[in-house]
UniProtKB/TrEMBL annotation:
It is found in: Cell membrane. It is a lipid-anchor. Guanine nucleotide-binding proteins (G proteins) are involved as a modulator or transducer in various transmembrane signaling systems. The beta and gamma chains are required for the GTPase activity, for replacement of GDP by GTP, and for G protein-effector interaction. GO terms for cellular component: heterotrimeric G-protein complex. Residues 1-69 form the G protein gamma domain. G proteins are composed of 3 units; alpha, beta and gamma. GO terms for molecular function: G-protein beta-subunit binding; GTPase activity. Keywords: Cell membrane, Lipoprotein, Membrane, Methylation, Prenylation, Transducer. This is Guanine nucleotide-binding protein subunit gamma. Belongs to the G protein gamma family.
Length: 69
């Protein structure tokens, strides 16, 4: 799609995107970083990557063993 547009049209699209982005509220990293850290620490108990998945609820566990006789 981008190949079909002229340079002028591409620049116009970029300007429109920048106009949208400039309206976003900015938050200092000193505040947002702390908020993200607090959220991650609060959710750590529910994170299966940190605490694991119980065997009875693990959809990827092996259903049975294979025996060759």
């Amino acid at each position: 799609m981008a190949q079909d547009l002229s340079e002028k049209e591409l620049l116009k699209m970029e300007v429109e995107q920048l106009k949208k982005e400039v309206k976003n509220t900015r938050v200092p990293i000193s505040k947002s970083g702390k908020d993200i850290k607090d959220y991650v620490e609060a959710q750590a108990g529910n994170d299966p990557l940190l605490k694991g998945v119980p065997e009875d609820k693990n959809p990827f566990r092996e259903k049975g063993s294979c025996m060759i006789s």
